[in-house]
Each structure stands twice: as structure tokens, then as C-alpha cells.
Design goal:
Strand 5 (about 225-230), helix 10 (about 235-250) and strand 6 (about 255-260) form a beta-alpha-beta unit. The protein has two domains: about 1-90, Four Helix Bundle (Hemerythrin (Met), subunit A); about 95-295, P-loop containing nucleotide triphosphate hydrolases (Rossmann fold). By secondary structure, it is an alpha/beta fold. Helix 5 (about 80-90) runs antiparallel to helix 12 (about 295-305) and helix 6 (about 120-130) runs parallel beside helix 7. An eight-stranded mixed beta sheet has the order 3-2-4-1-5-6-7-8, with helices on both faces. It is elongated, with a radius of gyration of 21 Å. The protein is built from twelve helices and eight strands.
């Protein structure tokens, strides 16, 4: 219970920028309007879109809100607040089976463009699984990016798990082949595979991921395949574009959203799940090894929409034990895919 409470306080701090954008805007609307009319709904739309929920998701939420307001005969704007929160929370629900892979013999394929935090996510996830008593092996199949293998070596050492790697420039599918053999021979519970975030074009991306998937299905058929896409929350709607491209290339089963502590665009988590129908399973709100957490829709929506009594101390950013984010020295977010 204390751990969950501690994470929620970090979540509140991490989502400060988004919460100030959304919750304060909503408070102004709910207290500023004396009745519900078109202007009221237009103001709500603007606040949600500015929070990066996106136009399509916002319109879906507002249409649902209008229907519920009419059906229930609600007249007071303030009475819409909890109704709006409940509608959004319902959209963000994660099924009970979302984390079944943790308790099965499984392969976790981690995809996403350069700069989103794939390496750090893999290290944190490996550490969490190991702490639950699972035997974990990591495959360094991003062989194209300079320093990718070194960074993953650092994180796996920190997590205390084995790494399977070859030289930079090696065939990623060959690395995955070796990792599958190692996972079987060492009786690993979970094999986590890093993948390239930058390839020449969309066709190459699809071909590479398809080749890796075929190797896994052929060499480790008894393993359950979980495919997680890592997205950078600070990129807002661009993260949604990336997710759409990767959805064409891979059967994505879950989303990891990182860097939510540095953005006013936290609403993108709602937009992605609503528009793609893929659940957000993990969120990152810091760079420490414990700062990747399973997505809790109740806590997330509460942190975004329910304004706490005192926001003053939220401007301070907690100091975490940090490892340099992957690709940070490249100084840019590379979308990694050319059409």
C-alpha cells in the first residue's frame, strides 16, 4: 500500500504540467459557467485538445458526455465534472489479463523509434521481473545504433540479468536466434528483445520486425509473444503517428509511455488508447530503475483531472538516481521512419 501511495505522489509530481493545463482549465469552466450550453462544451473541447487528447478522442468524449447529460437531465456544469472523469476513466481501462505474460514463458519484443527510452524501459522491466522471481534474459537486437549495445549492457548489469549480444552491425535476427537458444538452454522465464528504432524506410522496418518475429515463432514456439511499443510522452501527437506506423508492422499488445514527468502533453496516453484500441500497460515518470510502473487508469485520470488542494510544491522536480537516457547524447528525437 505504501509503495502504491508513493508512486501516486510521484505520478502527481510527474504530471504537474499536464494537470495544470487540464485541471485548472476544467475548474475555470465548471465554476465559470452558470448553465450547460454550446459554449460550455466548446470550452471543454479546447481544454482537452490543449492537453493533447487530440481532436478525434476529444470529440468522442464530448459526444458521450452530451448523451449522458441529456439522459440524466443534468443542468449544472459542476455536476458534469465527475461524469467527464468517469467517461475518460472507462476508456482507459486495462483488462485483468493484460500482464499474463509475466507468469508465462514469454518473449517480450520491445519496439519504438530512437530516443523514446527503449533501453531504459527494458532495463527497468527486466529488474521488475527479476524481483518477482522470474529468470530474465535480454537480447541486444538493436545492432544499428551506435552505443545501443553498450547502453543495454549497463542497464542489464544494473538489473542483474543476462545479456545476449553480438557486434554492432550484426544481423538482428541472428541475435534473436542466439537469445532464443540461450533462453531455452538456461530455462529462462522471460526473454526481452530490443529492436532497432531507425531503419531506412517503413518497408525495411516492417521486413525487419517480421523477420525477427518469424525467428521467435520458429525457435521458441512454446513462448507467449508480447509486443510492447515505447512512446515518448513529450512528443504528443507525434507519438500517436509513430504508434500507427508500428501497428502496421507489428501486432502490438501494449504501450509504454515514457517521460511523462517532463511534458504538458500527458493526455496523449488517453488519445493513443482511445484511437488505436491498444492498452497503455506501463508509464515512466522518472529515470530511476523503479520509475516504470504498471498503468493504473484510476490513479492516472485522478492525477490529471482532480486538482489537489495545493499545487505549489509540484513545481519541484524530484532528484532520482539517474542513468543517462538512451540516445540523449544525440540531442534529438528521431522519428526513425521515412515514408
Amino acid at each position: 500500500m505504501e509503495e502504491k501511495k508513493g508512486f501516486f505522489s510521484r505520478l502527481l509530481r510527474g504530471l504537474t504540467k499536464t494537470r495544470k493545463s487540464i485541471a485548472r482549465g476544467l475548474s475555470s469552466i465548471f465554476s465559470g459557467f452558470s448553465h450547460i450550453d454550446d459554449d460550455f462544451y466548446e470550452e471543454l473541447e479546447e481544454v482537452l485538445i490543449m492537453g493533447d487528447l487530440g481532436v478525434d478522442t476529444t470529440m468522442t468524449i464530448i459526444d458521450r458526455l452530451k448523451d449522458e447529460v441529456d439522459e440524466r437531465g443534468i443542468k449544472e456544469p459542476e455536476d458534469c465534472r465527475q461524469l467527464l472523469i468517469d467517461i475518460i476513466r472507462e476508456q482507459m481501462a486495462v483488462r485483468e489479463t493484460a500482464y499474463d505474460y509475466e507468469n508465462r514463458k514469454s518473449v517480450v519484443l520491445v519496439i519504438g523509434v530512437n530516443g523514446v527510452g527503449k533501453t531504459t524501459t527494458i532495463g527497468k522491466l527486466a529488474a521488475q521481473l527479476k524481483n518477482k522471481g522470474r529468470k530474465v534474459i535480454v537480447a541486444a537486437a538493436d545492432t544499428f545504433r551506435a552505443a545501443a549495445i553498450e547502453q543495454l549492457t549497463e542497464w542489464t548489469h544494473r538489473a542483474g540479468v543476462d545479456l545476449i549480444a553480438q557486434q554492432e552491425g550484426s544481423d538482428p535476427a541472428a541475435v534473436v536466434f542466439d537469445a532464443c537458444q540461450a533462453a531455452k538452454s538456461r530455462k529462462a522465464d522471460v526473454l526481452i528483445c530490443d529492436t532497432a528504432g531507425r531503419l531506412h524506410n517503413k518497408k525495411n522496418l516492417m521486413n525487419e520486425l517480421a523477420k525477427i518475429r518469424r525467428v521467435i515463432e520458429r525457435e521458441f514456439p512454446e513462448a507467449y509473444l508480447e509486443t510492447l511499443i515505447v512512446l515518448d510522452g513529450t512528443t504528443g501527437q507525434n507519438a500517436l503517428v509513430q504508434a500507427r506506423v508500428f501497428k502496421e508492422a507489428a501486432d502490438i499488445s501494449g504501450i509504454v509511455i515514457t517521460k511523462l514527468d517532463g511534458t504538458a502533453k500527458g493526455g496523449i496516453a488517453i488519445a493513443i488508447q482511445a484511437e488505436l484500441g491498444i492498452p497503455v500497460k506501463y508509464i515512466g515518470i522518472g529515470e530511476g530503475i523503479d520509475d516504470l510502473q504498471k498503468f493504473d487508469p484510476d490513479a492516472f485520470v485522478s492525477a490529471l483531472f482532480e486538482k489537489p488542494e495545493d499545487d505549489n510544491q509540484d513545481d519541484e522536480k524530484p532528484e532520482d538516481d539517474k542513468i543517462e537516457e538512451e540516445e540523449s547524447e544525440e540531442g534529438e528525437h528521431d522519428d526513425g521512419i521515412d515514408s
